[in-house]
Design a protein that fits this description.
Length: 169
């Protein structure tokens, strides 16, 4: 009965010696002294993201959304197969083996459902974006331009009041 735990302790000790001998510990990452971006860099990055968002067409967004939903549909079928296969297997009589089996089943099915949900949410969001872009084209009003104008107006008001953008953030 004691042979099993002692062999595990020996193996862990051997592994620890190997890790210590090979200096396997991660080194610290040096961070810049000013982790926040400068104002000009932030504005340039925001302008670049705005241009990318404007270039996106409704067809591209819809295609991406349909692809995401198709992947989610395939993953859902795969998840149902996994859960069905696991439910068809008998659970061991031993208490510890039963607990491990139940834990593994829960983790595997949970990860499969998580991946399914992530792709479904992504696909749904992209299809909603395609609908928004399509409505923008029909009405001739770009919501991104409206929001940018509102932000610029708010920025000017804050500057007039003497509140800097750094104090607010």
């Amino acid at each position: 009965m004691l042979i099993f735990p002692l062999s595990i302790i020996k193996r862990v000790g051997t592994f620890w010696q190997w890790v210590h001998k090979n200096n396997f510990f991660p080194t610290l990452i040096s961070l810049p002294s000013h982790p926040t971006l400068q104002k000009e860099e932030r504005e340039a990055r925001d302008a670049e993201q705005l241009e990318k968002a404007k270039k996106l067409t409704p067809v591209q967004a819809f295609t991406g959304g349909a692809t995401g939903l198709a992947i989610a549909f395939v993953l859902y079928g795969f998840t149902q197969t996994i859960v069905g296969t696991m439910d068809g297997k008998a659970v061991p009589e031993n208490y510890q083996a039963r607990q491990i089996t139940i834990t593994v089943r829960t983790i595997v099915s949970g990860l499969a459902y998580l991946a399914t949900f992530v792709y479904a949410a992504n696909g749904t969001g992209l299809i909603a974006l395609a609908a928004q872009k399509w409505l923008d084209k029909l009405t001739g009003v770009d919501l991104i331009d409206e929001q940018t104008a509102a932000w610029e107006e708010e920025k000017k008001e804050r500057e007039e009041q003497g509140i800097s953008t750094e104090e607010k953030e």
